[in-house]
Amino acid sequence: MRSPLSFGALLLMLGCAGVQRVPLKSEDVRLADGRFIGPLEIPVPRRADHQGHDFEITVTLRARCAPKLVLAFPDGETQSLGQNDQGWQDLLALRARGEQVNVAQAAPPPVAPAPPPPPQQDGPLPYPGPSSSPGVAVDAQVVIPLPQPPAGHWESVTTESWTGQLAFERARAERCARGGEYRATYLNAFDETGMLTLWAEVPQELREASLSYEIVELIPPKVEPPAPVVEHRAVVVVSTPPPKPRPPAPAPKKENPPAPGDARATWVPGQWSWDGGDGEWVWHEGSWRAPTPPALQAEVPGAPPNAGCTWASGYWTWESRGGRWVWQAGHWNAPPPLNEPRVDQPDPGAPWISGEWRWGRVNFVWTPGRWGKPPVRAETPPAPPFSGAQWVRGDWILVSGRWVWSPGFYEGAQRPPLPRAEDPGVAPGPGAVWLQGYWRWDLARAEFVWLDGHWELPPGEGYVWVPEPQGAGGLIIRGHWELRVRARP
Question: How far apart are alpha carbons 185 and 79 in whole angstroms?
Answer without folding.
Answer: 10
